[in-house]
Amino acid sequence: MIDDNTPDIEITELRKLTQVIKDKYDYDFKDYAMSSFKRRIKRVLDLYKFKNVEKLVSVLENNPDFFEEFVSEITVNVTEMFRDPTFWKVLKEQIIPNILLNHNKITIWHAGCSSGEEVVTMCMTLDEMGALDKAKIIATDIDTAIINKARNGTYSMKNMEVNSKNYARYQGTRSLEYYYKEVNGEAVIHKSLLENVSYRKHDLVQGVVFSKFDLILCRNVMIYFNQSLQNAVLNKLHESLFKYGYLAIGSKESLIWCEIANKFIIVNNEEKVYKKVKD
Amino acid sequence: MRYNLSNKYKAIVIGGSAGSFQGITQILASIPKDFPLPMFLCLHRLKHVRHGFVEALSIKSNKVIAEPFDKENIKKGGVYLAPANYHMCLELGNTLALSTEELVNNSRPAIDLTFESASYVFRDKLIGILLSGANRDGAYGMMKIKQRDGLTIVQDPNESMINAMPNAALAVTKIDHVLTVNQIVDFLIELDKLYKIS
To answer: How far is CA A182 from CA A71, A158, A177, A187, in A?
Structure first.
């Protein structure tokens, strides 16, 4: 990181970039949080050895094939199974049992599912509760390549070490090994575990509300948006929840600043689980 | 004048890793409750331990220390600690932004990210302080602070329990002051006085 050959990226350059993307590809990055978006763009410049944003803009203008790759590189795909083990305990012991108290089915949306570790985690949790067959799960992301990776359910064994540590902290009733088979240095999740999951490409920013859910997980996704976009996305998440459905966000995210915060109550402040109480 | 004192500064960033806990505790115990500048602390910490660090730092601190939420507004004189497993960055428009991006220098939170983003927002009105630590996180951040005409201070490598981090910064950029923790405290108290008379 000490190499510093690329010049500072100016905000005017980023505006030009987001405008070109909007016009040509109909993706809207203009309300992404500036500090992280700028860093992601710098990362793309370094990765492809583009000398400045102007060069990136011209590649995007002239080479539509590059766009999907660009989206993959600027989205943040860092995730773990059972990230925040205490959160998963709360889901298992309080939230999911509460939903199943009144319904025989549970519908779940992973909004911004990335490579799918959280989806796998959810299925393991439901399985341990004996509730997997009651669940219908939709997992979406803006990035086509990462959706395919999630659908594959195959993870590097190297990552399973941290996942196993998280699982131990979560105090699962089995072991992670129960759920996958090791093939050529990779952990292949048993297909039966992910049977009730459907993976789709969906853009939270511009996509429409497509269904209603009992539980939405959107953890550490909105942190990449500015406040006005957070507001807009929260409106969509609200609309996508049944009344008395639950929304889980990242442990250091908050709805306090959002305009429709009063349509939710906080159910677990430590793990940031909210409940929709008003339409 | 011993230090480059000025009341133009708007914020302070402090980075530390192994061996910095004592120093940061002493700084927080010594600055007055109404110290006017916001301080952003990025200290390497265990990724999976969310609790206990703020409490430990708070024991002797005159200031309330907060682990901010994403997009939290920056308060005058507020002290903000980068939460476990998140990068903490400064955003234009007086807010903080958190991120779960890749580890940087094997760290999350990474000092380089806090420092770089703060220097982008505060330009020459930023003071960067880098304490003891075992890797080179913070060196790039200090370089950016200097490039944007901010003030750079490192803990004296002779005093640092582990001097790799101050040395890495000294190797890549001009450091305005090489100070012991006592001198850093002295500097901050002088700075505080200057703000109160002007």
So the answer is: 30, 11, 9, 5
Q: Give catalytic status of residue B51 as yes or no.
A: no
pLDDT at residue A1 above 60? no
Residue B32 reports pLDDT greater than 70: yes
CATH number of B11-197: 3.40.50.180
Domain boundaries, chain A: 11-74, 85-276
Nearest to A198 by CA among A86, A108, A64, A104: A108
Percent of chain B whose pLDDT exceeds 70: 99
Residues of B in contact with A220 (CB under 8 A): 100
Interface of B with A in 5-34 (CB under 8 A): none
* Chain B, nearest residue to A77 by Cα: B101
pLDDT in tens, A111-153: 999 999 999 999 999 999 999 999 999 999 999 999 999 999 9
Whole-number Å distance between alpha carbons of B36 and B43? 21
Predicted local distance difference test score (pLDDT) of residue A6 = 61
| Domain ranges, ordered by start, for chain B | 11-197
In this prediction, residue A254 carries a pLDDT of 93
Topology, domain A85-276: Rossmann fold (3.40.50)
- DSSP output for B79-109: EEEPPTT-EEEEETTTEEEEE-PPPBTTBSS
Does the pLDDT value for residue A5 go beyond 60?
no
What number is the ipTM of this complex?
Answer: 0.93
Best residue of A252, A269, A271 to probe chain B, by most B CBs closer than 10 Å: A252
- Residue B9 vs residues B34, B59, B126, B128, B150: alpha-carbon distances, Å: 16, 27, 6, 11, 9
Type of residue at A188: V
Q: How far is A253 from chain B (nearest CA, A)?
A: 5
The two counts, helices (H) then strands (E), for chain B are: 6, 9
Quote the CA–CA distance of A266 and A259 in Å, as a whole number.
Answer: 15
Is-above-0.90 flag for pTM? yes
